[in-house]
Amino acid sequence: MTDIIHVPEADPWLRIAAIQRDRWAPNPVSDGALKRARLAVSSAGRLRPRAVLFWGPPNAGKSALREKIVREIERNLFFPGRAQAQVIVSFEAPPEADEARFYEALLHGAHRYIPPGNNRTLLQAVTLYFEDVRPDVMILDEVGNLNAYTGARGAICLNALRRLCNVHKVALLGFGTATAMTAMQADEQLENRLEIFHLRPLTPPEFTAFVDLMTSAMPLLQPTVWSPAMLERAYEMTGGYVGRTVYLIHDAATEAVLSGIEQITPEILDSDELAESLAALRQARMRAGRRGRRSGGDR
User: Fold this and answer.
1) What is the pLDDT of residues 199-246, one digit of tens each?
2) Residue 86 forms beta bridges with which residues?
3) How far apart are CA 129 and CA 224, in angstroms?
4) How far apart are CA 71 and CA 60, in angstroms?
5) Model pTM score
6) Pairing status of strand 137-141 against strand 88-92
7) Where are the extended beta strands (E) located within the chain?
8) Beta strand extents in 48-160 (DSSP E only)
9) What are phi and psi for residue 110, nearest 5 degrees?
10) 64, 45, 62: which is closest to 53 by C-alpha?
């Protein structure tokens, strides 16, 4: 299954808008992650629903995976034949090491009223929300933020997360960088139920197939032929990560339209502008790696 669509020849800016749209393209890493997500979500409603943490460096493909999961669940496509769509609770972990902030972030993500008061009041509001909508899936983004939860206050926050999933029988899908593993493993009971899925780089053969598929979706007027040297250059620039590869192809295809060349060429891949854009992504990945090592996330 793919979200790739072809756009007929049109105004260049219309084609550029089509190039930049979010799309899902099958590949072994993302497809494997989607399978693990389906297995976890299928456990919703059971005594001990599953939890999966999808982790990788910045631009590894986490955002596209998360949006794919949300979109398919909301459209009732996650499990074909199911009578009705499952209900999702989706929010971003707050950086503050405080139980109240955790509940507030959850209510904010659900667009619910956040009552003033203490932790008990906020928990009551969350409980009423859960009893009202009866969620099946909790999607927690930026799990690495939970590293701020240190000491007793942090243990309370992680316990609150586990308690909500257990009491309401909600499957948990988390997304984050290497630091997210350190955070989630701080709670022994949560760790025992947590599956870790690494959004690894594509291998060179996987990368070639993915690049060909993505390039075929670009509304360019001339076909792009990827030479071995071009593929080697692209792999060097992206590290083989899905998100960065999509970024490269989008930017290279955009430049192909703006320049009038209408195909991705070695000159475009070697351009200073594209190199600078990908260098910024590499720096983000390196910074995330250093943070992970400092926190013990790469052990």
Assistant:
1) 999 999 999 999 999 999 999 999 999 999 999 999 999 999 999 999
2) none
3) 51
4) 19
5) 0.84
6) parallel
7) 51-55, 88-92, 137-141, 171-176, 194-198
8) 51-55, 88-92, 137-141
9) -90, 0
10) 62
